[in-house]
Amino acid sequence: MTAAVLVTAPHGTSDPAGQRAVAALVAAVAERAPDVDVREAFVDVQAPDVPTVLDGIPTDPVVVVPLLLSAGYHVRVDLARAAKAAENPSVVVAAALGPDPRLVSLLERKLADIPLAADDALVLAAAGSSDGRAVDDCRAIADALAERAGRPVEAAFISAAQPELRSAIAQAREGGADRVIVLSYLLAPGYFADLAAAAGGDLTTPPLLATGEPVPSELVDIVLERHRAAHVSSVLQASLDLAARV
């Protein structure tokens, strides 16, 4: 089976550190899979956008892999529309990066670097979404991390969902927390990471792609698995459709 073109689709950011971090992830994916044609596109802010990149791939099978931690509006609407509008009929959109147990492992690793007291509160800071399914995905990550950490982890959101991050931090203090540790469930530095850091926590961990740190192998694994799974599913569906017409 010929490998499909892999088009990465992060949100995009005007933050230079965030741009470098995401570019490093894309480069690591390309290095890990030299037989795959890896191309970078963006949902917003940066160029080229996804439709432009898809226009440059008129015939080969394509899998758009959202470099997004949950399947909210950008995945279910923006990217789905771009795939449907493409002249190439062999474009499919893969699942978002999360939820995935390996993302929980990355958060757990960041948490392990912090000496915790018994009365410290943990808050998972996610971007937020108007799509309830994406919000539930983030809460599932918080619950999984709580199970591993052996202590509560509350999911809170920077925008579009409740509880709002600042409110969750304030409520934790009112509940008697000595410190509030904010765990950034964000992919890379940028606007949302800055908001998380300024929300009032005593300590805020860096995003999953942290400045000055190597790209986590888990993220590369997830991207390539999303690409492969979507391509296999697409090929299987095409075979079933062909058989149904015979």
Molecular structure report:
The protein has 8 helices and 8 strands, in the order βαβαβαβαβαβαβαβα. It starts with a strand and ends with a helix. It is of the alpha/beta class. 46% of the residues lie in helices and 15% in strands. The protein folds into 2 domains: 5-97 and 216-245, Rossmann fold (3-Layer(aba) Sandwich), CATH 3.40.50.1400; 101-204, 3-Layer(aba) Sandwich (Rossmann fold), CATH 3.40.50.1400. It has helices spanning 16-32, 50-55, 73-85, 101-112, 132-149, 165-174, 191-197, 217-245, and strands at residues 5-10, 38-40, 62-67, 91-93, 121-126, 153-157, 180-185, 203-204. Strands 2-1-3-4 form a 4-stranded parallel sheet, sandwiched between helices. A 4-stranded parallel sheet has the order 6-5-7-8, with helices on both faces. Helix 4 crosses helix 5 (132-149).
Quaternary structure state of the chains depicted: single chain
Given as residue ranges, the uncertain stretches (5+ residues, pLDDT < 50) are: none
Largest sheet: 4 strands, parallel
Q: Helical amount among residues, as a percent range?
A: 40-55%
Distance between the termini: 22 Å
Q: Give the overall pLDDT as a whole number.
A: 95
Helix- and strand-based class? alpha/beta
Strand content: 15-25%
Domain count: the total is 2
Major beta sheet, strand line-up: 2-1-3-4
Q: What is the architecture of the largest domain at the second tier of CATH?
A: 3-Layer(aba) Sandwich
How many individual β-strands? 8
User: Based on CA inertia axes, which overall geometry fits?
Assistant: elongated
Broad CATH class of the largest domain: Alpha Beta
State the helix count.
8
Rounded to the nearest angstrom, the radius of gyration is: 19 Å
CATH topology of the largest domain: Rossmann fold
Order of helices and strands: EHEHEHEHEHEHEHEH
